[in-house]
Amino acid sequence: MADDQYSTKGAYVSGGAEFTRDTNYIPTRITRDGRDGYPVEAGRYRLIAARACPWANRTLIVRRLLGLEDAISLGLCGPTHDVRSWTFDLDPGGVDPVLGYERLQQAYFARFPDYPKGITVPALVDIPTKAVVTNDYPQITLDFSTEWVEHHRAGAPDLYPEPLRDEIDAVSKRVFTEVNNGVYRCGFAGSQEAYDSAYDRLFTALDWLSDRLADQRYLVGDTITEADVRLFTTLARFDAVYHGHFKCNRQKLAEMPVLWAYARDLFQTPGFGDTTDFTQIKRHYYVVHTDINPTQIVPNGPDLSNWLTSHGREQLGGRPFGDGTPPGPPQPAEVVPAEDWVPVG
């Protein structure tokens, strides 16, 4: 790990306090009309992500489902970081080959020299200036769907269909507040009271989702939408990390029949499981969060091979890609190693 002065110890849990996420991100958008100074342009921008991060994993899924790999290049940070920044330690020499940076922090400082907030993934970087454009992860995936249409692959699904946007937004809001962020409120709670409240809210929402998905294959409509992408990345991490590390332990995902089948259905859909790296996920949470795992020991379990077992959700109908088609295989440079994808405990 990093030197003590850059340790993440004390960075996540505040004694006696409820965990509160800072949701103020760089609001700049990349749009067709370029109104913020950054027009849609194939090859101009680089998506910086980390497979370990659920917020970044969303962008990897949507980019792949829509076929934006040739239009938006990808830089991947390693699963661990210090208090300063995510780093490019997966690349030769620890340097991103396009930006020439060792740390994502450098792209933030290229635009905002005194940037005072956390250096987060995902981030879109303007390659000509090597400066960050935005780290507003909820908007990034929506803009991939709506602003980058001319660069979508043939057969790309509509992940944000206009007639369903109000419902997608409403479902996504509850999923974020109660589930995506709810697991963090449990894990980073600074008091028993804060933890108890977060725990109750989380499982109330998971029960609501179980009821909603009992008779329908997807969260909104009969196809995969943005709402499913947002829920999936939390479910994929639930048994590997959140159940134990974050004390979200009323049940494992594998003990919630509807959500477990739903998650496996998505995992086995091209674009979801093949962007998931369980090894990096576990290493990130257990090594970086020294507040709650000071030994930094990464557990060997659970056995994750059951993600490939039959889910039976086809009987509910639905058309995963609507009138579109599945994406082809991942680009060779972006393939998750098999032992990281469905490792056997």
State the gist of this model.
The chain has 345 residues and is mostly helical.
For the termini, the CA-CA separation is: 25 Å
Mean pLDDT: 94
Structural class of the helices, strands and pairings? mainly alpha
Strand content: under 5%
User: Could you name the ranges where pLDDT drops below 50 across 5 or more consecutive residues?
Assistant: none
Instruction: Report the CATH architecture of the largest domain.
Output: Up-down Bundle
Number of helices: 10
**CATH level-3 fold name of the largest domain:** Glutathione S-transferase Yfyf (Class Pi), Chain A, domain 2
Q: Give helix % range.
A: 25-40%
Instruction: Characterize the overall form.
Output: globular
Q: How do the helices and strands follow one another from N- to C-terminus? A: EHEHEEHHHHHHHH
Physical arrangement of strands within the biggest beta sheet: 2-1-3-4
Radius of gyration: 19 Å
- Based on DSSP secondary structure assignment, what is the total number of beta strands? 4
Main sheet attributes: strand count, strand direction, barrel closure: 4 strands, mixed
Indicate the CATH class of the largest domain.
Mainly Alpha
